[in-house]
Amino acid sequence: MELTDHVYAFPLTFERGDRETVIYPSGVETEGGLLLLDAGFPGQTDDLADALADHGFSLDDVETLLLTHQDGDHAGGAEDLLSRTDATVVASTGDTPAIEGDEDPIKSRGDRYPPVSVDVQVVDGVTFRTEAGPMRVVETPGHTPGHVSLVLPEADLLIAADATVADEDGLVGPNERFTPELERAIESVGTLADFETSQVLCYHGGFVEDADVEATYRSLTE
User: Fold this and answer.
1) 14-49 pLDDT, tens per residue?
2) In angstroms, rounded to a whole number, what is the distance separating the alpha carbons of residues 35 and 28?
3) For the domain with range 2-221, which CATH number is right: 3.40.190.10, 3.20.20.150, 3.30.200.20, 3.60.15.10?
4) Which residues contact 32 (CB under 8 A, 6 or more apart)?
5) Pairing relation of β-strands 157-161 and 199-202?
6) What separation in angstroms does the CA of 18 have from each of 14, 15, 21, 45, 165?
């Protein structure tokens, strides 16, 4: 799924109970290769490779793996991916301890995905050069302590990760069940509204065109 020039979603399907669910890792082309946002669950690397191939990429094209946060459906597949690529791992300062194994993931129930080393830690405002224009890191805590989203202003695109989810009606805010600090997460939606992007990719729910992040934020605070 090409979201805009040089930006792609790589949908991955998995079984949850008696139904199929789709998650949406994504990628942005850079001068040096593909910047991949999130790695899926453990065991999904082959599926991810197939999704990359649908757009002419291979795992060898992945130069950077940016983990938006510590949850297993985002960081769980990182170890396997890194065993098959030379990617540099990027994550937020807030979630790096959990990703590296120095802390348990905040939603862990005693088991966890294999930890990986983070090569570069980022904070709010760090900007990557991409073929789709500057991509800015925006700290959006609440879903996890170090959750980040990415904004590409020139592409009019927000890659929200789990800061918001989407359903058939559009954006619906953070998933309350999986968001330990809900009030903080709602404040983060307000932060994202300030960027006035009209296209949003949610890791859960997919791509929303003509999105109104400001209206979503107001609905959460009224």
Assistant:
1) 887 778 899 999 999 999 999 999 999 999 999 999
2) 5
3) 3.60.15.10
4) 63
5) parallel
6) 11, 7, 10, 22, 21
